[in-house]
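Interim report, section 4.2 (structural modelling).
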Amino acid sequence: MLLYTNALSGNCYKVRLLLTQLGLQAERRELDVYDRSDRPEVLGELNPALRVPTLVLDDGRALPESGAILWYLAEGTEYLPTDSFERAQALQWMFFEQYDLEPNIAVVRFWELGGIHADPELRTAKVQAGHRALDALERHFGAHEFLVGERYSIADIALFGYTHVAPEGGFGLEGYPAVRSWLTRVAAQPGHIAITDC
Amino acid sequence: MLLYTNALSGNCYKVRLLLTQLGLQAERRELDVYDRSDRPEVLGELNPALRVPTLVLDDGRALPESGAILWYLAEGTEYLPTDSFERAQALQWMFFEQYDLEPNIAVVRFWELGGIHADPELRTAKVQAGHRALDALERHFGAHEFLVGERYSIADIALFGYTHVAPEGGFGLEGYPAVRSWLTRVAAQPGHIAITDC
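Predicted structure of the assembly:
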């Protein structure tokens, strides 16, 4: 398999983390996330959104979107629940992450790491929305060890991706003790790698 | 089942459309999408994002997020592919919709319908991003009848929800003939209902 990826991207890290925990190998092709001028040429035929991660299977079929890749790779393994309601709950959290957490926490972090000065009003709105997403996680982890079915799954991988680097976007986690405990539990899973690990 | 819903919401319409096509009934509770002050009280225990749609099953378990609800309801029916790669492709398009299409086309439409004057720079960015999402669909439908596996599925329902009302947000579809043909094919499916149908 071939993974179009970027070392800073939490979305790519989610895929790299699951690949590692599944003991699967994928060749990696690193793409820039700030200069995206080569994207149409490189990803035009593979991913309508021209984003990383994009996974190309050995038979040449391409699969974009971190959530779809996680689902595909995890099906039939311990990382995806078998119960139909729990599977839907995993998707619930993965859609929540892509709609409420990623566009706020990941985008502000992207601006911070790249020294990008965004519109202050937009930045404030994203900081507030990011904290609302963290608040929702804090409430959940006040009563649960993991996101779904009280065990580690791709839902945890999907939410861990950007939550654990939220401080890099200025989102302090001091006020989120239950989230911090969950981050520790995820990082203690067998085969865990850090986002900075190759 | 009980569906917390809103008549203007394309996300809620997706669920109503699939329920109808599956011949399933759900009691509906209408929530306001402009005045959301009652959300914590009504949805606080059911949905961390406090959004509609939220489906409550007969046993009391709540399932938020339109994509997760579609998946749960469609599993085992003709509306969800059985092939593992096609299932991942359905999710790919559903994540694309929630990340690239909905936050742009649905939000601008929401502003238009509600007479909300958003920041002009933000509005311009969302209009441009909405057109990029439509461009991606146009490219796909230039070569395919439906989103996945050349047959109607929940991926089509998920993308139809806001694409067919994009003109209400000022997104003219004149330049998207392949998208318009697909909209016609979706509307011709057995059991189809309009967003304005009860």
